[in-house]
């Protein structure tokens, strides 16, 4: 067996005894051929069995390495928890926001399976040119009401699209549920159209949400690499993905229907809306425009936590 270990070490480019992890891209038949060169005639099945005895198997990568939880990361999670408790205690609204993965609209393969008599035929390639369009689902999850709203855009995922979606949610549901005289807490990722470094995001909040509705807004961003803790990911988006798994997203009507049908046994309900407005990209916000915002950065990690208040002299 020692001889076999040496042969496998040479064939695998590692040490099967454990000092170095053996790895190879060779097929079983290729390893058997290499062993034959050492005078050991074995079949590919025998190679498979021997590798199994040595703990060697076909494996993929596993996401385990982490950059660690530094003091700022832990402090931000604690601060978000503190803010959430404060808003819950005063019965003020808390929403979690994000953009779900963009989808090609048409007869394209959608990951997952569902119960059906026959598989649905789809295109053999996912070419954008063959799509009816692009679906950009921007989600808003109301934590206290357990309600989801998804605005499906058709052009670009921009800060203006994000804020106008929040404004539409506030008009349709938020203001009725919590009253006009309140304060809104937004939980968001650190990047994308609602990123903490995005000037256009803060400017759009002030111009299109805070001032028009005289609604103070506090935003808390999750630290980089921590988006999976954003509640919308596991309370809304994951449920949508499970509901439409294996169903080709053939048209916008079907997408809206599938999102709107998403529910859970814990009481989640979801509303869906199509947004066909064209949103331009690359809009720049000047220093002067930023100085005109009524923006207060919090003492705790001000790069991730801030409040925008209405400007009283604005309509």
Question: Which features does this protein show?
Answer:
315 residues, alpha/beta, Nucleotidyltransferase, domain 5, nine-stranded mixed sheet, 36% helix
Describe, in plain words, how this protein is organized in 3D.
The chain is built from nine helices and nine strands. The model has no long low-confidence stretch (mean pLDDT about 90). Strands 1, 2, 3, 4, 5, 6, 7, 8 and 9 form a nine-stranded mixed sheet that branches. The longest helix has 20 residues. The chain folds into two domains: about 50 residues, no CATH class; about 240 residues, Nucleotidyltransferase, domain 5 (2-Layer Sandwich), CATH 3.30.420. The chain is α/β, with parallel strands linked by helices and about 325 residues long.
CATH fold-level name of the largest domain: Nucleotidyltransferase, domain 5
What is the CATH superfamily label of the largest domain? Ribonuclease H-like superfamily/Ribonuclease H
| Largest sheet geometry | 9 strands, mixed
> What is the class of the largest domain in the CATH system?
Alpha Beta
Order of helices and strands: HHHHEEEEHEHEHHEHEE
Tell me the overall shape: elongated
Strand content: 15-25%
Pairing-aware structural class of the strands and helices? alpha/beta
Indicate the radius of gyration in whole angstroms. Answer: 26 Å
CATH architectural name of the largest domain: 2-Layer Sandwich
- Portion in helices: 25-40%
Helix count from the secondary structure assignment: 9
List the domain count as a whole number: 2
End-to-end C-alpha gap: 84 Å
Q: What are the segments in which pLDDT stays under 50 over at least 5 consecutive residues?
A: none
């Amino acid at each position: 067996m020692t001889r076999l270990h040496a042969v496998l070490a040479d064939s695998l480019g590692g040490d099967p005894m454990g000092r170095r992890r053996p790895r190879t891209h060779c097929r079983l038949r290729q390893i058997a051929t290499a062993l034959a060169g050492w005078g050991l005639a074995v079949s590919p099945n025998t190679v498979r069995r021997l590798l199994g005895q040595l703990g060697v198997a076909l494996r993929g990568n596993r996401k385990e390495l982490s950059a660690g939880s530094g003091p700022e990361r832990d402090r931000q999670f604690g601060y978000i928890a503190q803010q959430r408790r404060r808003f819950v205690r005063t019965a003020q609204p808390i929403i979690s926001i994000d953009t779900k993965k963009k989808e090609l609209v048409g007869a394209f393969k959608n990951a997952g399976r569902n119960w059906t008599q026959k598989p649905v035929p789809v295109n053999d390639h996912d070419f954008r040119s063959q799509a009816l369009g692009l679906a950009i689902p921007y989600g808003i999850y109301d934590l206290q009401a357990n309600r989801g709203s998804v605005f499906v855009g058709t052009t670009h995922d921009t800060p203006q699209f994000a804020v106008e979606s929040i404004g539409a949610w506030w008009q349709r549901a938020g203001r009725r549920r919590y009253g006009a005289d309140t304060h809104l807490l937004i939980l968001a990722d650190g990047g994308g159209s609602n990123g903490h470094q995005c000037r256009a995001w803060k400017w759009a909040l002030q111009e299109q949400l805070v001032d028009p509705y005289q609604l103070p807004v506090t935003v808390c961003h999750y630290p980089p690499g921590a988006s999976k803790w954003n509640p919308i990911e596991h309370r809304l988006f994951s449920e949508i993905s499970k509901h439409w798994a294996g169903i080709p997203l053939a048209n916008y009507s079907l997408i809206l229907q599938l999102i709107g049908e998403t529910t859970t046994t814990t009481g989640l309900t979801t509303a869906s809306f199509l947004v066909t407005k064209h949103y331009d990209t690359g809009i720049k916000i000047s220093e002067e425009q930023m100085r005109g915002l009524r923006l207060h950065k919090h003492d705790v990690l001000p790069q991730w936590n801030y409040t925008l208040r209405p400007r009283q002299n604005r309509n």
